[in-house]
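Hey, weird one. I pasted the HEXXH motif-containing putative peptide modification protein sequence into the form twice and got a warning about non-standard characters only the second time. First submission, copied straight from the form history:
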Amino acid sequence: MTEQLTGVAPGRAALLAAHPDFGRADAIGRRARQVLGFTLAAALRRFGHGDDVAVGPEVAGDPAVWAALQSMFDGLHEPVTEPSSVLAAAIAPRAPRRDGLSPTGSEPARSCTARIGERRQQTVWLWQGVHGPLTAAVDAAFGRYARTAPASRETHSHALGAGNGDFKVSTLYAAGEIERKAVETATELLCAAVPEITRETFPFIDGITFFDGDLFASGTLLSQPGIIFIERRIIDDPDRLAEALLHEALHLKLNALTLTRPVHRAGVADDSALLLPVPWHRDAASGAPHRWLANRALAAAHVYVHLVALYERHAPSARSRATGPDVCRERAAYLLTELLADASRDLGPAGVRMARWLRDVLAAAPRDHEGGAAVPGPGPRREREPGPLSRPGSTAGLPAGTLRRSAPGHRAWRPEPDLCLVATFEPWDVHVLNAYQWAFFTACDGVDSGLAVSSLRAAAPGSAATAVTRALTDLLDTGLMVIEQPRTNWREETGCSPSPCWPTACSSRNGAADGADHSGDAEDLRNPAGP
């Protein structure tokens, strides 16, 4: 069925798994639960369901709660008009844990599970139909996507159709023993080939659903964290299913990461965003290459680099693989080159750092075809965030005036030096700030803007001083703070109303999977080399 390669470089998979910010599942999951727990507690307080509710980590990581909070989190969706309905799945988490799909007990007992990973207790549930709020939400989200997906939607296999409407309607079906065995066989293959990667990726999978139809070979939906959708026809091929599971699990991991770090800039999907041509995806009618936003290009590069590591350890037949090692390497290199050029303006600081890390991993530990020896690559390391990037609408200089906090009703929490959270109640939003933005927001209300910037720049190391100005610019863009400009005698005499604040646009929503709207992911002032 497959040919096992020997004498290949062991370094790439280890590098991908070991990065303290982008690789380690425990660190990413912990930060995501902190953000979601804070969001839930603040939301319950804001909308009258409790006051200072203590939210445990098992509740914040609950799939039903996570899915409910996704639609409330800044940058992921439009503002919620009736939050009570969104919070319905999250109000009862203080009940004892039950044997259901979630700790809330909102689902019936699991009737079909599959073991994944190297530890016997690591299992995922397999779709058995609608049993409660979580499964109903999964079914509804998949149905909406199946009805509205564009006809040009690319698939992951040449054997499957593209788009919807022109093909059989896609519907979920209940998994059985065949699906369970297929999942376990495919995940065992992955664990044998790249155990370092599976240990840091499988924890982000909660459930797997199967469907009939021609929508795609496999996929995930942002509104349903932890859920993978698999087309029936690939379950008979363990290599193909293994690749699909790894591919989608990496998307789930990246979605969790973007909750807590500024991977994309706010407005990454707006009209000013740069569209990258993708030569290997072309329109069937015109032959023109499809164009991707930076968030999609980064997600694809993330997958391609991991597939290179998989193919170095395990070589499926040409029939079973969607691409191949050389193709994955070429596509990853192309996307990362584009992302680190002009498209870098659509990435946040963490996104630029992530792209650089993936580029370094791709170049590391090359396979020596003659001797089979591995050339050691660079170990995981923390880097400073890049300096200010040229972005649409960025301001070169800040006007003189007094900094004012424009969120009188808010709740703030700083669980880690580089994870600073602010929830505003009017309007409802959740923001993740970096250490510099936190200092401006908590300590500079009523302070002259020039004095505040100069003071923080003096406290910051020289290489990070320029990040201070950018931090304030981004903070002003979110609307959390404004600069009050002094009245002029001319305006007072003429009766004209001055514009009291700068900038005039108070908020910009991020259309990508990045709840960390505008956070700069910069270092703690006391730890300039931090993440």
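That's the output from the first submission. The warning seems to come from a hidden character in my clipboard, not from the data itself. The chain has a mean pLDDT of 74.
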